[in-house]
């Protein structure tokens, strides 16, 4: 069977592309390495039964009693350091949006002009005005709830279109913190709370219910109020797209005369251990397989004649400039009850430090006000154990536990990384995976640009704690060496105007192969401080227009 377009990866980027192209009348194949998934209620149950609670606890590799592993496992990649890369991802229909928090901020204009403004990083081949209408399209496609007036013009990021839904309501604790920080300045910048746009419904939208405040967005929304990529996979299939789940694309074949992509090789699998290999052809191809799996596939598709360094890698940039948002947090007990654990894990943040002249010296950062107590620093179960160890029982224990949990508080911070060519994805030596694809190997170095931002962010956290009356003995501040990953993996197939130092152009079209598009967060030349999903969606919708035009008119 021949398709108009074959899309590798059924996460948010691939799903949006498939839907847009299918409803435009094109023959679309959507190929996903992972499974289509089980019923949402079963995934919620898997998390409840998991002995270890992680963001991936709802998503088991395969069903017992089969011992065969799926392509999704805890051993995603090898690492060479010297610093630790700490983010993982899901390989399944819908992608990592299943266990994302759901925050949907836009990049701000300076994020796309980092080198021009501050002399660090690189500039995007697109400006904010190029992306702005697509941000509006993406917000309506995903269903983003937000405060249009508050966010219009934030750090110069104008908005031409309201959100499809009003903001998610603030928690009681948000209101307490908002009052406490009135008049606060840190690093010479006024500290203010602002509503965080989120891909969760503040009212019924697009056939999905309003958020019920279960506070379990990570790892899974139990009612589907939070968006995930499977929403648009279902829409794409309803519009005529063909979905192959459990189909691992193992190689991209090139025409050695023209340099164009001529086929995808794949292996279909099931939990019983069956394997079936094949190839499929299309007029145009899109790789939207995530910022680790995409370069892995491109590099594994080396052709000694047509692509000796890997597909789309004439610039030697495939896999380079790996980025994440490096995170930390502070947690404490405050003086006044905040009554956390009601509503989403976060609804407001501190965006004042997302841009400024300081970016010439250290990374920008964004802070989120937590609504989940002390987060991982002290869970309710840990608080209970602490009080039991102190000898409390009965009514005294209940009273003390109620009081402590009501006053738990957390602030997390997320810092941008600069693109560094040595931070990269390569192919690991040693055994390949179950599908004979070399494993990915990641190298990352943490630099002073981030270390300085960690210190600056912790100063903001401390100042807010002061305003809330947090005692010194209760403050738990995450140390630099224990930074966390955000799951925001970016930069490994970056876009640019110059084919010598980028992989794709401003339309996400590969410089080296005119019938290949590469879409996703790997396209980002810089990472800014915005969660990447909304920008990924905007770029995917923009690329869909280009792909559809090419399919109608030819290259």
TrEMBL record:
The keyword Magnesium does not apply. It holds the Pfam family GMC_oxred_C. Keywords: FAD, Flavoprotein, Oxidoreductase, Plasmid. It comes from the Bacteria. Residues 213-326 form the Glucose-methanol-choline oxidoreductase N-terminal domain. Belongs to the GMC oxidoreductase family. This is Dehydrogenase subunit, putative.
């Amino acid at each position: 069977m021949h398709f108009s377009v074959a899309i590798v990866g059924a996460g948010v980027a691939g799903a949006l592309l498939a839907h847009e192209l299918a409803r435009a009348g094109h023959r679309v194949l959507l190929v996903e390495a992972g499974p289509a998934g089980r019923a949402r209620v079963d995934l919620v149950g898997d998390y409840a039964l998991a002995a270890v609670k992680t963001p991936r606890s709802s998503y088991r590799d395969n069903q017992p009693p089969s011992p065969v592993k799926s392509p999704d496992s805890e051993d995603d990649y090898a690492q060479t350091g010297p610093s630790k890369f700490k983010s993982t991802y899901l390989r399944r229909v819908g992608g990592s949006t299943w266990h994302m928090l759901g925050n949907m901020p836009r990049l701000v204009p300076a994020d796309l002009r980092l080198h021009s403004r501050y002399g660090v990083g690189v500039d995007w081949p697109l400006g904010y005005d190029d992306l702005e209408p697509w941000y509006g399209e993406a917000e309506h496609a995903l269903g983003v709830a937000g405060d249009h007036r508050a966010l219009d013009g934030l750090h110069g990021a104008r908005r031409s279109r309201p959100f499809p839904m009003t903001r998610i309501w603030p928690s009681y604790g948000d209101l307490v913190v908002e009052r406490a920080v009135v008049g606060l300045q840190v690093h010479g910048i006024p500290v203010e709370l602002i509503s965080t746009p989120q891909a969760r419904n503040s009212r019924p939208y697009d056939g999905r219910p309003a958020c019920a405040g279960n506070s379990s967005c990570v790892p899974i929304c139990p009612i589907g109020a939070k968006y995930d990529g499977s929403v648009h996979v279902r829409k794409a299939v309803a519009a005529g797209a063909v979905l192959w789940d459990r189909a691992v694309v193992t190689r991209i074949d090139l025409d050695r005369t023209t340099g164009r992509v001529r086929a995808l090789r794949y292996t279909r699998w099931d939990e019983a251990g069956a394997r079936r290999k094949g190839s499929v052809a299309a007029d145009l191809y899109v790789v939207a397989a995530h910022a680790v799996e995409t370069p892995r596939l491109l590099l594994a598709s080396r052709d000694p004649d047509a692509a000796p360094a890997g597909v789309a890698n004439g610039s030697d940039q495939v896999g380079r400039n790996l980025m994440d948002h490096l995170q930390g947090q502070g947690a404490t007990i405050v003086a006044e009850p905040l009554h956390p654990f009601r509503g989403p894990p976060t609804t407001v943040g501190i965006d004042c430090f997302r841009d400024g002249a300081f970016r010439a010296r250290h990374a920008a950062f964004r802070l989120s006000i937590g609504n989940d107590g002390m987060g991982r620093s002290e869970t309710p179960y840990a608080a209970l154990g602490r009080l039991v160890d102190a000898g409390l029982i009965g009514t005294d224990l209940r009273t003390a536990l109620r009081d402590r949990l009501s006053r738990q508080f957390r602030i997390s911070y997320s810092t941008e990384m600069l693109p560094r060519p040595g931070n990269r994805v390569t192919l690991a030596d040693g055994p390949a995976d179950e599908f004979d694809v070399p494993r990915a190997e990641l190298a990352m170095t943490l630099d002073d640009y981030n270390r300085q931002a960690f210190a600056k962010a912790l100063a903001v956290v401390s100042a807010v704690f002061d305003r809330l009356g947090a005692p010194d003995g209760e403050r738990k501040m995450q140390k630099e060496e224990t930074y966390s990953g955000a799951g925001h993996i970016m930069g490994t197939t970056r876009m640019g105007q110059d084919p010598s130092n980028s992989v794709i152009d401003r339309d996400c079209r590969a410089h080296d192969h005119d019938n290949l598009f590469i879409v996703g967060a790997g396209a980002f030349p810089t990472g800014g401080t915005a969660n990447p999903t909304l920008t990924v969606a905007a770029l995917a919708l923009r690329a869909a227009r280009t792909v559809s035009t090419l399919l109608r008119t030819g290259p």
